[in-house]
């Protein structure tokens, strides 16, 4: 099993979409193994987005990411990085495939609801930025015995 980081960005929380985003992850068979709500500060923004600090868009992105709380999730599943990337859709919601989170719910490229690690190596690094080892949880997914099927 593979793990990856998902951030429900400030716009996802402000628009009340965190539950819908989590449901899509879980519907895809991904298991939440870590979760926390936090407010990113500029130091964390520089650490998380270290590859972009010198790029012209960093200041605006950092201002947005530090503007309001976000939800950090560590999710686990078969090819979790690729699964999350497929669920998210293209960075620009106008170019994202129908049925993806960004195509269905995001407003624009700057407020696109969700971040997902782009490789297993980046996932390991990013999870380490947001979570201590003790904040990660292993457990088995179970089918719901209380769900009645048929009549």
Poorly predicted segments: none
> What does the overall shape look like?
globular
Number of strands: 4
* Percent strand: 15-25%
Mean pLDDT: 94
In a nutshell, what does this entry contain?
This protein is of the alpha+beta class.
Textual characterization of the structure:
A 4-stranded antiparallel sheet has the order 2-3-1-4. The relative contact order is 0.24. By secondary structure, the protein is α+β, with helices and mostly antiparallel strands. The protein has helices at 10-14, 18-27, 42-48, 58-65, 80-88, 101-105, 120-130, and strands at residues 2-8, 31-38, 70-77, 114-116. The protein is built from 7 helices and 4 strands; from the N terminus they run βααβααβααβα. Helix content is 36%, strand content 17%.
Supply database-style keywords.
single chain; 151 residues; alpha+beta; four-stranded antiparallel sheet; globular
Walk me through the topology.
Elements: E1 2-8, H1 10-14, H2 18-27, E2 31-38, H3 42-48, H4 58-65, E3 70-77, H5 80-88, H6 101-105, E4 114-116, H7 120-130
Antiparallel strand pairs: 1-3, 1-4, 2-3
């Amino acid at each position: 099993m593979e793990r990856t980081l998902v951030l429900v960005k400030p716009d996802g929380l402000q628009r009340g979409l965190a539950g819908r985003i989590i449901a899509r992850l879980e519907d895809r068979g991904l298991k939440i193994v870590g979760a926390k709500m936090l407010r990113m500060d500029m130091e964390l923004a520089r650490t998380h987005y270290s590859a972009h600090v010198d790029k012209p868009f960093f200041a605006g992105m950092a201002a947005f990411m530090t503007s309001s709380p976000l939800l950090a999730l560590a999710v686990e599943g078969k090819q979790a990085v690729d699964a999350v990337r497929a669920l998210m859709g293209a960075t620009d919601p106008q170019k994202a495939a129908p049925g993806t989170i960004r195509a269905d719910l995001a407003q624009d490229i700057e407020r696109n609801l969700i971040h997902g690690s782009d490789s297993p190596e980046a996932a390991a690094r990013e999870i380490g930025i947001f979570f201590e080892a003790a904040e990660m949880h292993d457990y088995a997914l179970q089918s719901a015995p209380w769900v009645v099927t048929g009549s």
